[in-house]
Design a protein that fits this description.
BirA Bifunctional Protein, domain 2, eight-stranded mixed sheet, RNA-binding, 21 strands, five-stranded mixed β-barrel, 25% strand, 2 domains, elongated, OB fold (Dihydrolipoamide Acetyltransferase, E2P), alpha+beta, 33% helix
Length: 509
Amino acid sequence: MDDLSQVLKARREKLEALRARGIEPFAYNYDPTHHAAGVVSAFEEAETAGELSEDGDGATVRLAGRVVAWRAHGKSIFAHLEDASGRLQLYFKKDVLGDARFADLELLDLGDWLGVEGPVFRTRMGEVTVRVRSWTLLAKSLRPLPFGKVETDPETGERRVHSGFTDTEARYRQRYADLAVHPEVRAVFRTRARVVAELRRFLDDEGFLEVETPALQPLYGGASARPFVTVHNALERTMFLRIADELYLKRLIVGGMDRVYEISKDFRNEGIDRFHNPEFTMLEWYQAFTDYEDQMDLVERMVTHVVERVTGADFLTFGDHEIRVTRPFRRIRLLDALSDALASDVRDMGEGELRRRAEDLSIPELAGAGRGKLIDKLFGELVEPTLVQPTFVLDYPRELSPLAKPRRDDAAGTTERFELYIAGVEMFNGFSELNDPLDQRERFEGQARLRAEGDDEAQQIDEDYIRALEYGMPPTGGVGMGVDRLVMLLTNQSSIRDVILFPVLRADE
RNA sequence: GACCCGGUAGCUCAGUUGGCAGAGCAACAGACUUUUAAUCUGUAGGUCCUGGGUUCGAUCCCCAGCCGGGUCACCA
């Protein structure tokens, strides 16, 4: 115990003192009648209706939360208690509580969980407050939370936090402390839950069936990415964590489940930055008898639905950008947009000229890039950052899209595929699904050749998937979407780590 | 993976051209029965990220490493 810092020691001493006074520092339950926000609204209603007592008291309430501010004045104390709904002021008076119970308050600290009961009133300064008649310690906090001091500007009502908890690393590693002292962080994750709920509601209403497919797979596929590899001991075989749901969901379409979706954790063994976490949440859906045009329409309806339901508006603020979320979204063809940017028709350019153009722009890592990859690199450099307003980019090169159908009227080697960009970030990716098993086998073989040449992100041949296609898959449109990125957009967070409760970090120690 | 920035009290940060380590908040003791960044008086609190090196002496300079952030690369 000698190695504890003085702040930790002080709290343990209080814990012993509480027990010595017969106070259990870790209660078993409590029965609150209200949340903080509900107390305020109920009091204000009673006030308006003239239902307060002669001395201005409203109803008696019970409230439970964490002590987040404490101002002792000798024989009276003001404090703030915060619960899931917000914070409320408490007023403790020695002549209300009695000498002994008032003295016991000395053993409380910021961060303690407390239940209080008493009538609600409005202080001289106008703040709705509980005059505490009795209190119950629910859980002693033995480690000080990094509370800042919250100042409210009396004129603007603006909140300023002093000496807050800003160490980014500590906030991610100790998310519990981050959440405990930052109501706005809790709000981000409430919004996240609503986004996911609205995505579900939208697809359910469209007649989709939610399904679950394996996260642990003998063969991975459906995207270009390196997997996490693990071992099943009893089966004595290598297994992979999924990088995408795609191939399993389309097997279900073959099986006659004509509208399916899955919200899943996917895992990609790649770098980490503000748009990438190694495990992330993906939504994928597949709808029989539709093509990518139908799916663009569905995506537009889905995005406007979610934005409207979550924010109540038809626009978003993301960083410096004001983003209008109104249908229809802009649509550009990839090769047209790139040709405009290069002031020359990409369809007429061979691999050599594309490479020269890329080199002119000092785009790195061009070694081994084929025509499709070069087009993609140039597009990423020249066009993507300009796609701030919602924009569908159409018709990707076949080399980049081994699971997409060829464009029906185009011999130039493009596929019926779109990506939806918002705020310069790829949010959705959909296509008319390739359902010709012979073509699919050729595409897989092409991927296998890339793999043999050292592309460790190329896909493997999935014979079972080809067998499924041979039984016959109806024309199908499918879409994948990064849920975390959509949440970033809707909560105006610049890092994916700020919308994932426990982002991947290096081991600490 | 490359480069840049950072790591000092529970939190937020100063600082030392290399010489006993500083502030505010939090803590502790005291005063104060309508305060709200409460106020006032006093006290205590440190592996200056880790390991080497240089030096009479390193938190500071050098080297290596760890962790984080940012930018880039990777990630269709």
